[in-house]
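Running this now, will post back.
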Amino acid sequence: ADGLCVDENGNVWSSAADGVHCIAPNGELLGKVLVPYRVSNLTFGGLARNRLFIGGSHTLYAIFLNCRGAAWP
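Update: finished.
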């Protein structure tokens, strides 16, 4: 697993063996999105950048979040 992305608040969303971990800038684990397969990559998308696309070893997940992915400069 090597995927990660950043939301507009500076939190890091990282792939993990059990799903996706959301980590605050200070290193605190804010939460997890658990999925049954190992996550290989992830990215924010959608018109509002509030949908998290999660690529698993056998599947593709897409969930809406209460945050948005960081905008490109």
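The beta strands are 4-6, 12-16, 19-23, 29-34, 39-45, 51-56, 60-64. More later if anyone needs it.
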